[in-house]
Amino acid sequence: MGISLIGLLLTDLMFIVVYNFYEDLPGGYWLLLIGPLVEGALGGMLSAVAAANAYFADTTTPVER
After folding, report:
1. What whole-number distance in Å separates Cα of residue 25 and Cα of residue 14?
2. Cα(13)–Cα(61) distance, rounded to whole angstroms?
3. Domains of the chain: which residue ranges?
4. Where do the H-state alpha helices sit in 1-65?
5. pLDDT of the chain, 65 residues: tens digit per residue
6. CA quadruple 26, 44, 7, 36: dihedral, nearest 10
7. For residues 47 and 54, what is the distance between their CA atoms, to the nearest angstrom?
8. Sign, CA torsion 28/30/36/37
9. Residues 6+ apart with CB under 8 A from 1
10. Which helix (H) or strand (E) holds 23?
11. What are phi and psi of 25, to 5 degrees?
């Protein structure tokens, strides 16, 4: 779960960096493609949601579900 959340954080940081420094970066706005590629390689949002649901299912009793 932590690895996929790092991928989400890196994607958001990439958007912020490109927005603020697109004129100074080599490739300009083309660097926006790196964020989703890294996020997908690290699992993405679906992996984080699946891991969170599995964690909640494992830590709660059947009565609380």
Report:
1. 12
2. 38
3. 2-59
4. 2-21, 34-41, 44-59
5. 888 889 899 999 999 999 999 888 888 788 888 888 988 899 888 888 999 999 999 999 888 77
6. 10
7. 10
8. negative
9. 47, 48, 51, 52, 55
10. none
11. -85, 140
